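Thread: Modeling a multi-component assembly for a lab meeting

Hi all, long-time lurker, first post. My supervisor asked me to bring a structural picture of a complex we are working on to next week's group meeting, and I have zero experience with this. I have the sequence lines for every component (899 residues in total). Could someone generate the structure of the whole assembly? Inputs are pasted exactly as I received them:
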Amino acid sequence: MTTASASAAMRKVSLAGIMGNRGALWAAVILMLLLLLVPVALPGYQTLFRTILMYVALAYGWNTIGGYTGYVSFGNVTFFGLGAYCSALLSAHGVNNLFADVALAVVVNAAFAALVGLPILRLKGHYFGIATLGVALAITDIVGNLDAFGGTGGLALKTVDEAHFSIYYYAAWLVTAGAIGATFLVARSKLGYAFVALRENEEAAAVLGIAPTRYKIVAWAISAAIAGAAGAVFAPANGFVDPSIAFAEDANVFPIVMTILGGIGTVAGPFIGAIILSGVNELLARWFIKVHTLFFGAVIVAVVLLLPRGLVWLFGLRGGARTWLKSLAAYKA
Amino acid sequence: MHLLAQDLVNGILAGGILAVVALGFSLVWGIMNIINLAHGAFVMLGAYVTWQLFSSFHVDPFLSLPVSFAVLFTLGYLIQRFLINWVARAPVLTTFLLTFGLSLLVVNVALLIWTGDTKGVTTAYSGTNFTVAGVTVPWAKLYTLLAALLITGVMQLWLTRSKTGRAIRATAMDIGAAQLSGVRVAHIYAIVFGLGAGLAGVAGTLISLSYSLNPSMGQPFLIKAFVVCVLGGLGSVEGALVGGLTYGIVEAFASQIDVTIGTQHISGTGLQDAVALVVLLIVLIVRPRGIMGRATA
Amino acid sequence: MSALRIADVGMRFGGLWALREVSFEVERGSVVGLIGPNGSGKTTLMNVISGVYKPTTGEVRYAGRRIADVPTHEVCHFGIARTFQVVKPFESLTVRENVAVGAMYGRDGGTRSTRASFERAQELLEIVGLAQVAQRPASDLTAPNRKRLEVAKALALDPEVLLLDEVMAGLNATEVDEALELLRDVNRRGVTLIVVEHLMKAIVSISTTIVVLAEGRKIAQGAPTEVLASPHVIEAYLGSRWAKRQEQLRVIEAERAEAEHMQPHEPNA
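Re: Modeling a multi-component assembly
Sure thing. I ran the full set together rather than chain by chain. Output:
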């Protein structure tokens, strides 16, 4: 296959445009509405679906900086963790209010992201990624050594009684819906275009009047606020946070994997990726207790090889199996 | 003073291993732009190859170095040839995700074969050490460091002098030009990935002498490889060595921090990583391309 | 009245001066053609005027302000826009979106609404002749259409001064005529143009003034026919000395482009 036709095929599938695919977006909205019924229809699965919602929100948070702006962060768990600690510290001071938790987490994390972003968002590509990983690991260590944060022993939170536990589910749903809504609005707005322009070519964007550092910081602050809010509603439901829970590796890596799997830099992609990956993981865990992670790895490998541009791509695919095989060939070395 | 000297020695000894771990990771990343998240899993496999040979056939760990290199090289070559090359021209995050999946696969296969129980390689010289000017040096770690330096040197020579080594460097600089001058890129890529895996295997063997083994042991080394790579500069042999030693030394000194502010006691043993990472951040901000300056790829 | 003052501009890359003591003024509403052999410093001068490079000596002033003092992303806010010789479309956006981004963040410093920006983009696409492909991804465009898009993006900034770096390269005769017509039209609307072009016929037909650069120095300035008749200019084009220098500059520029590509810092940071 020649380079020219290969890249033509590659383009055909890469251009869902800034909004991503409409069909995929509608699928996401309908699924989201159905998820609202879980506490009533499937009360036994509440915790499972609450966790899925959490991952969906984290995936959206990551997508803003990693997907739209093209700055791949390996450290967004920092914001999830700090969000969780915001709730824990409020609880320790007698404040047990989910709205207060989310508000504090959003403010603290957006500010923290802006502060850290000022030096490290000047780094390009992989160097930015490593710096964010450094921030995440350093913060994990530091929090584990501070008495005010309970050290490695962690902090307990006051939890509502069993009968009202579904408020945590609805809180997680709201945060997730907020994250999707925010992404939708940003993607349609001038802000979204600034992010994408920076991703595609920073110099060309600057010549058109887009201040690179300013908009990158805005993107990262939004990303951080979303992850922080997800952490803030997670902690009270969990009833306890310590560094290994708040800065868990799963919470760092899964959202990235889910976003890439679903379709990076699209509105619907993270949702689809998160739902399918969490679902597959859960089913595998039920069917193959011992080897489910092995199967999980195999599923990821298979999906990457068969759908290198993510699942959202399937929605936009026209022309059936032949187009698909042809476009696959475009990626071979 | 003794304490400082001891820290320095500890740091250098630990840094040598880190350099080898980072070397393979750095080559794969620098030359092919693949962030290999399975690198830690390859390190683990290398350690288990050594353990298996040691416990079944009493092969000395240093003698198993070529075996773990060969086993991992073959595995790496096959993975690149038949999996990664399949999506080699997809965006970098696609291969990133692929290696994440591979790492889950490898770790869990290891879990099935060797279980999650902690294992160790205990040789006659394990636990023996000598003392020079008040500084204690474990023999095993000293041998490890020497092996690490030797491997780094051989790699550097091979990359600059051998025909394949030159083809690799040419591919890293300009893929199109390399192709035109007859370099088979798919084959070269597979060799580079094999080499990265082989070096991870070697690192695993060296690690098995000083650390205990379990299937998830590779993860912390993966993260350190990341950092060392950036510290030293991507894709360069001497960069990995300098980065590894720097990281090892910084970490060793950080463990000595011991201060109390009010009721808050801060001890370096818990903050080792944090200090090392703060150093990383400072290096990145001051020297965005690593201590060694120019990246080669 | 002069719109742009280039005073004693020098630009050194390593040991080589790509520009040396270049001075001239650009009248408001004029069309200045910038010509010279390869490697004479035309693109470097465009980069200095648009604020991408800070000159080693001298200064460029526009409306009384030194361009070098203004960050790249603000240069367009006081009326200077440019195209790139190597076009830089945002590949994953549609053609219309590409232009709309300029309209959103350009001249008024980001006060234009999304809807108004898209309307403006559509108008401009009609002007440059890309209306039919407005909804196509920019990566699908042919080379001449990419040049058109580049011009539309620059126009979206509502510039007072527009720098055009080889926008006609690779166009056929009819397309060149269309492009010239477009530029005349833009100029009639009051936009001052600085045009770098290899096609001598095109540049003579559109320019009110021509500035000739050779080996980084200005060697002539004046009305097109006058300038081209000057023996000085002919020698610069045909002389042998520049061949060596051109090779030197090409290597340096390539290294520089490479270095910028590798550079983790923002160009304007």
